[in-house]
Write a structure and sequence with these properties.
Length: 185
């Protein structure tokens, strides 16, 4: 596995080794020992284990997020795409971070097989780029409804450069999320 740090501290692109031959391909989608050592080589902590695996299926144009949970239920997520493609976004919400209010995005797809490690303190969301897109994410804390929060996906302060679509589809909850108030400089 290849681990690449992004401009936002703690956020890491994970690329598994893919073994391909005339039959198709094989990859190890997760190995706790390799995951921990890959993050440690970047000077980052890793969860001891994941407690929940989530899957979502979305049609083209669906926006999910930007979601996060408050402490003590804040979640780290390892996100990958099993079918289709997404424009995946993480927003730094850590109040003492030099990148507070900054966002990072990349395309995750079944074709490129990349994953994104999103540590606690980030909001996460994605835009489905294809019909029948299936997203998988492993989380290191259980979902807690009372701790669930979100930031408006198209908040003017964040200015995320979402790919253009004919239509965007959001849940009613996501469409009325509050914006982010960036601390003064």
């Amino acid at each position: 596995m290849k681990f690449t740090a992004t401009a936002l501290t703690g956020l890491v692109i994970v690329e598994p080794d893919v073994f391909q031959d005339d039959r198709g391909w094989f990859l190890e989608s997760f190995n706790l020992q390799r995951f921990k050592s890959g993050l440690q080589e970047l000077g980052l902590n890793s969860p001891d284990y994941f407690v929940q695996d989530n899957l979502s299926s979305s049609k083209k144009g669906v926006v999910r997020g930007l979601h996060y949970q408050l402490e003590p239920h804040a979640q780290g997520k390892l996100v990958s795409v099993l079918h289709g493609a997404v424009f995946d976004v993480a927003v730094d919400l850590r109040p003492n971070s030099i990148s507070y209010g900054k966002w990072f995005a990349l395309e995750l797809s079944a074709a490129n097989k990349k994953m994104l490690w999103i540590p606690e303190g980030f909001a996460h969301g994605f835009l489905s780029l294809e019909d029948d897109t299936c997203v998988s994410y492993k989380v290191d804390k259980y979902y807690n409804k009372d701790s669930e929060r979100s930031v408006l996906w198209n908040d003017e302060v964040l200015s995320i450069q979402w790919p253009l679509m004919d239509s965007y589809f959001l849940s009613s909850k996501d469409s009325i999320s509050p914006g982010l108030f960036v601390r003064p400089k």
